[in-house]
Design a protein that fits this description.
Organism: Thioflexithrix psekupsensis
Shape: elongated
Structural class: mainly alpha
CATH topology of the domain at 196-298: Cytochrome Bc1 Complex, Chain D, domain 2
Order of helices and strands: HHHHHEEHHHHHEEH
Domain Cytochrome c: 76-160, 216-300
Distance between the termini: 145 Å
CATH architecture of the domain at 196-298: Orthogonal Bundle
CATH class of the domain at 196-298: Mainly Alpha
CATH superfamily of the domain at 196-298: Cytochrome c-like domain
Transmembrane segments: 12-33
Region (Disordered): 164-213
GO molecular function, one term: heme binding
Length: 301
């Protein structure tokens, strides 16, 4: 009997061990068998992964988008009429120099306004040569848009008419529309030598051309001339001595480089013309103006 019990106990123990081993093997095998995965399940996993990455990516994208969207808005706004006037027109129209009708003066403006706003705007945009003055195209400020120039014209007309663009009924059209009604800029005064115009009237006799200072940067002077002086000096308009003309230049050169430079930097009113300070281009440095004077003296033949 004892032997039977011992055998049964042994068999039961073996059975338990075998069952445990089979369970372990089954568990291990199941881990290596891939379960079927639907496309929907995979898509969900991809979306979950993307969602985890989203915060950093979204922060950078939003920041970049904000920068891009804000940039164009700042550059888009055109200048107002008074802003254009103060930037480009006031040099001549503020004091009524170089043949420009003085801002707010009805006696000078009404005959011009009587010609019509379209005529004034056309002269201001495209330029106009009259008997007593010249209006360079856009006053020499080529970067201004047509609408900005028109706004400046309307602003100056409004200073006379009280807000309208029509002249009083009593105003007769000007026989000399020459001084354009709405010069949005100084009459192209060249920084270097417009002072010459006045000088010529009282000059004694022509003298040989003076050699520009050896230290002058003629290359920079040529660049400044093309930017600021050529509008008047290339054609000899508004009383400016024509570039390269010894008959007009030598009497002025005889005064000396210091005088020419002083007139170009600080302005000069003469009998036959006016030289605004730095030709109306206040952003030019003194050295740029000096080099422009030296360049124009150097091309006199």
């Amino acid at each position: 009997m004892a032997k039977v019990d011992e055998a049964m106990s042994k068999n039961f123990s073996n059975l338990m061990v075998s069952g445990a081993l089979l369970s372990l093997v089954f568990f291990v095998v199941v881990q290596f068998i891939p379960l079927p995965t639907s496309e929907k399940s995979l898509e969900f996993q991809y979306e979950a992964t993307a969602e985890r990455l989203k915060p950093i990516e979204k922060l950078e994208t939003a920041s970049a988008a904000a920068t891009e969207s804000s940039a164009p808005a700042v550059a888009a706004a055109p200048l107002t009429g008074d802003a254009v006037y103060n930037q480009a027109c006031v040099t001549c129209h503020g004091a009524g120099i170089a043949g420009a009708p003085k801002s707010g003066d009805p006696e000078q403006w009404n005959p011009r306004i009587a010609q019509g706003i379209d005529t004034l705007v056309n002269h201001a945009i495209n330029g106009f040569q009259g008997k007593s003055g010249v209006m360079p195209a856009k006053g020499g400020f080529a970067h201004l848009s047509d609408d900005e120039v028109k706004a400046a014209v309307e602003y100056m007309v409004a200073q006379v008419t009280g807000g309208t663009t029509e002249a009083p009924a009593s105003a007769a059209p000007a026989t000399e529309e020459a001084t354009p009604a709405a010069e949005p800029a100084a009459p192209a005064a060249a920084p270097a030598t417009e002072e010459a115009a006045p000088a010529a009237a009282t000059e004694p006799a022509a003298a040989p051309a003076e050699t520009p200072a050896a230290t002058a940067n003629l290359e920079q002077g040529a660049a400044t001339y093309n930017q600021a002086c050529s509008v008047c000096h290339s054609a000899g308009i508004a009383g400016a001595p024509k570039s390269g003309d010894p008959e007009q230049w030598n009497p002025r050169i005889a005064k000396g480089m210091d005088t020419l430079i002083n007139h170009a930097l600080n302005g000069f009113q003469g009998e036959s013309g006016v030289m605004p300070p730095k030709g109306g281009f206040a952003q030019l440095s003194d050295d740029e103006v000096k080099n422009a004077v030296a360049y124009m003296v150097s091309v006199v033949k």
